[in-house]
Amino acid sequence: VLDRLLNAGATLMGKTHTDELAYSLLGMNPHYGTPLNPRAPDRIPGGSSNGSASAVSAGIVDFAIGSDTGGSVRLPASFCGIFGMRPSHGRVPLEGVVPLAPSFDTAGWFARDVAVLERIAHVLLSPATVETGAAPTRVVLAEDAFERMNDESRAALRPAAERAARILGTPETIRLSENGLEEWMDVFRVVQAREAWNCHGDWIQTEGGAVDKGVYDRFLMGSKITGVAFEAAAAEREDIAAAMDTVLTDETVLIVPTTPDIAPLKKSTPSFFAEFRNQALSILCIAGLARLPQITLPVMLHAGAPLGLSIIGRRGRDEFLLRVARTLATGLDIAA
Predict the structure, then answer these.
(1) Which residues of 285-301 are buried (b: 16+ CB within 10 A; e: fewer)?
(2) Each residue of 301-316: pLDDT tens digit?
(3) Of 157, 59, 148, 56, nearest in space to 108 by CA
(4) Cα–Cα distance, 101 to 106 (Å, whole number)
(5) Confidence of residue 132 (pLDDT cuts 50, 70, 90)
(6) How far is CA 61 from each of CA 33, 112, 283, 301, rounded to the nearest angstrom?
């Protein structure tokens, strides 16, 4: 990824902070501190690609890269009021990247405007695709995803989501999961946690004592997942992916909230952060489980802090989704 960007004319400004082993959504590293959320200084920036989101939001750089396994580009982008893209799984090369959960890991990027977001995509996405369909033919709002939001934030975001849907076409509403997105999140957590343990378990057993407790506990959970439980969850994941294939045709756009709420306050309790993380993952897991591209757009401020809205497309339709993001950025008058 770095080679492609540098060869295309990018200038490397530096490296940024991340949560330990990219295994958190908070952006609070006990060893190096918490980067600033420039749009809401009393709130967390979100993680794990927290420093990248902070640098872009503050205007220090035009764009930054980050990793997105469970939501680590999309969530901090929403919290910091910028664009963030998670590409289709496998569309961006991961040579040289330390893995966390390989079947979910992607390299994504942040930008303050959609034109830069597209420029980075043209450099990083591979293989190049020849796409048909310049505009969506179907626009869908995921009702069960909006239900996972906190009430006040949902009331604030839903009109923006409906306006976005009308810009793109005639919207319809569906429910993605028969038994609730909490069930999808459980599938995600089992597969991710076991893959993470497989990647880093040996190191955690010898050096894990210095790791943040929340991160350590997630690795410990992964160590207790049996092979049978992992295989069962992996099979459920494929069923979810197949179901999403039926929802998302080549010209379908799915609209979901990026996060359940604005960024939590830095002074929030560990129990609050844990509950928030689970709530967020029940929305963020949709794209990860089905290996889909997702873009979060900085559509509004709520209670003085940014709140993002996301669009999701069919796997491999990243360029199409970027065109939709450009249409929405214009229609919703999203300023750089």
Answers:
(1) bbbbbbbbbbbbbbbbe
(2) 999 999 999 999 999 9
(3) 56
(4) 10
(5) low
(6) 20, 9, 29, 22
Among 218, 265, 214, 253, smallest CA distance to 79 is for: 265
Calculate the CA 50 to chain-centre distance. 12
Residue count of the chain, please give it. 336
Nearest of 91, 93, 90, 26 to residue 53 by alpha carbon:
26
Q: Mention every residue, 6+ apart, whose C-beta is less than 8 A from residue 128.
A: none
Long-range contacts of range 237-246, CB-CB < 8 Å, 24 or more positions apart?
237/187, 237/188, 237/191, 237/289, 240/184, 240/187, 240/289, 240/290, 241/289, 241/290, 241/291, 243/176, 244/176, 244/286, 244/289, 244/290, 244/292, 245/290, 245/314, 245/315
Contacts of 239 (CB under 8 A, 6+ apart): none
How many Å is the maximal CA-CA distance in the chain? 56
| Structural tokens at position 280 | 């967020």
Average of per-residue pLDDT values in the chain: 96
Residue 10: predicted pLDDT: 98
Distance CA 107, CA 245 (A): 22
Measured CA to CA, the distance from residue 162 to residue 57 in angstroms comes to 26
Which tokens sit at 114? 């959609």
